[in-house]
Amino acid sequence: MDDWLDAAMQVLMSDGVGAIKISRLCDRLGVTKGSFYWHFTDISALMTALSDHCRGIEEAARRTLANLQELPPVERIQSMGELVSNTRRRSVEAAVRAWAETDPELQAAVVALDHTTFDVAQDAFVELGFSPLDAHARATALVYVGIGYMQGGERVEAPTEDDKRIFVEMLIRR
Q1: What's the CATH architecture for 2-172?
Q2: CA 174, CA 170: separation in Å to the nearest integer?
Q3: Nearest to 138 by CA among 86, 74, 89, 66
Q4: Which pTM value belongs to this model?
Q5: Three-class SS of residue 174?
Q6: Tens-binned pLDDT, residue by residue, of the chain (174 aa)
Q7: Whole-Å CA distances, 53 to 48, 66, 124, 140
Q8: Which positions make up the DNA-binding region (predicted)?
């Protein structure tokens, strides 16, 4: 079953949810449709399993962010940037976010991840001594830059190490 979910995830990332078809997945895996029906009753069953898988990915990302709370605030902010700039993570997250526009359960998972991201960032800025108002603004900027970067995909050049360093310096500068 994992092979089917991996193949479906690859199609989701490359061509979107509408491109996930039984025949396409069979071709990708080099198997017959009978193999598909051994694992799933129909395409809806696969899509339900894939949606569950994607919600699991979002929940794992939330746990990863929550674990960053143990780091000093500047390291926490830098680590958040590293998470979002991971090429694989960025591709997965962009695909999940695009699908979430039409899947309410998946959208709830994305919103929960965004709230966790914001909370972790805001806590870091408060710990750095910023007022609640300033911490809120900086956390908002960090979250939206991350979302924009993920949605930009290959259209926008990946940030360099200098870009990331300068962005963090801008956020923590008084």
Answers
A1: Orthogonal Bundle (1.10)
A2: 8
A3: 74
A4: 0.90
A5: coil
A6: 899 999 999 999 999 999 999 999 999 999 999 999 999 999 999 999 999 999 999 999 999 999 999 999 999 999 998 888 888 888 899 999 999 999 999 999 999 999 999 999 999 999 999 999 999 999 999 999 988 888 876 677 778 889 889 999 999 998
A7: 9, 20, 30, 28
A8: 21-40
